[in-house]
């Protein structure tokens, strides 16, 4: 490998740096975009079950926010519902939208860098090819060719072209793969948020109609109650 780097000349060093950065980003995104850290499949069902009878306490909401990115989005909606006892649906949707944008930003972190590497690596390889061609033409002289300089120029051109493609192809594949995962998670978060918004609004309306009290008083009293597990009954 060291002999190949020597034969490829100085243009290979930017490509080596890009390969190290791309590998680090791919490993980091694989860890960060796991379903358990982004959108656990059963989380929305658990939240709907907890809020079926009464609103959760602030400690429970904080633990939900620490669970995953989807937990952060759902927790922001629960906090908004507790802060606004009237159950204003447009306000709830706005809170979910803002929190969802933050979650998307977290999921897309470093993806632009990975995409930049995928686009820049072939250009860096082309730069090495041009440098190799300059070496080849520089080896020409009126008295004849210098075989050593000619071979060195050819090696610079071919090695950099090949290494640029070796770096760019996997980087582009993983970039597209992670983009697809993010889009899938975004759809899951949208569906979960829609279910929770509908649940909170219907819960406030049904509580107000069953007790005969204004929705603000019902929601305020429900938010003040601690969450009690079924096992303690």
Structural class: mainly alpha
Task: Report the count of strand segments.
Answer: 2
Helix content: over 70%
Distance between the terminal alpha carbons, to the nearest Å?
68 Å
Segments where pLDDT lies below 50 for 5+ residues?
213-233
Q: What summary fits the major beta sheet?
A: 2 strands, antiparallel
Radius of gyration: 29 Å
**What's the overall geometry?**
rod-shaped
Q: What kind of assembly state do the chains in view correspond to? A: single chain
Largest sheet, order of strands side by side? 1-2
Helical segment tally?
Answer: 10
Which band does the percent of strand residues land in?
under 5%
Order of helices and strands: HHHHHHHHEEHH
Report what the structure shows.
- With 233 residues, the chain is an all-alpha fold.
- The protein is 80% helix and 2% strand.
- Strands 1-2 form a two-stranded antiparallel ribbon.
- Helix 8 (111-138) runs antiparallel to helix 9.
